[in-house]
Design a protein that fits this description.
Layout (H helix, E strand, L loop, with lengths): L4 H24 L5 H22 L8 H28 L2 H8 L2 H12 L7 H18 L1 H4 L6 H20 L8 H23 L9 H29 L1 H4 L2 H17 L5 H18 L20
Helix pairs in contact: 1-10, 1-12, 2-3, 2-9, 2-10, 3-8, 3-9, 4-6, 4-8, 5-8, 6-13, 9-10, 12-13
Amino acid sequence: MKMGKLEWALVVLLSVLWGGSFFFVEVALEELPPLTVVLVRVGLAAAALLAFVYATGRRMPWAPGAWGAFAVMGALNNVVPFSLITWGQVQIESGLASILNATTLLFTVALAHYLTRDERMTPGKLVGVALGIAGVAVLIGPSALAGLGLYGLGQVAVLGGALSYALAGIYGRRLVAFPVPVAAAGMLVASTAMMAPLVFIFEAPYSAAPGMVTWGAMVALALMSTAMAYLIYFRVLASAGATNILLVTFLIPVSALLLGVAVLGERLEGTAFAGMALIFVGLAAVDGRLTPSFARPWGRRTPRAVP
């Protein structure tokens, strides 16, 4: 599946929203434990999207099958990856976490080949994934790579979150029958229900007293990087597929870097331009625009024309 201009614009916007989530999580972790950050994130986002669903005249379904699908999607796309990556960020640097998170697309390309009928693996996709991961590594720089091999459990946690995101991207296509706000709200409500007992078991009681900065970060994380982001996520997933929506994992480090330049006055190094160039070439390769001759799926034979 190739993406049109609208889908590309939405993926770029999604990368900005999710790129900011790493910053908001880092701020929140100063005063809150990891699972609590996840619970507050999905809980506030669920409340916001439920209000949006009913304000726009829609209704949530009551069928057990629908909520079963929401629960599976919530586990794969929120509970497991949010918990693993948030805990992993306590152990490792955010730059290294970004590199490991970019493997989401590699997992997706491999899994989608076997689990879907219309997102088969191609040589172009493999080339694009390799270029994208290399670009993220160059963009982040050697300082993040210096931590590779340290904090092993933190690295494994982030990789586990990336694998879960890949599975969610594939499974999430089952939710396209629902309106986008309903699918997003249902997933987040189910996620909140699953996170609450985990927080009570593993983190409560605790004596945290978050201040205004932490609450500001949590509100931004919930409303912008979660509620708004998932409205975009399900919209693009329905029209462009799992592989294309997860191209965003390559763009997140680019968005974070450019936000640092625009907001914090940071300067771009030469390696940043090289990394972004590799990422953009990789995106074009995965999308099939750069290497059309390598866009034929593996595992399928093109019928020979009959004279």
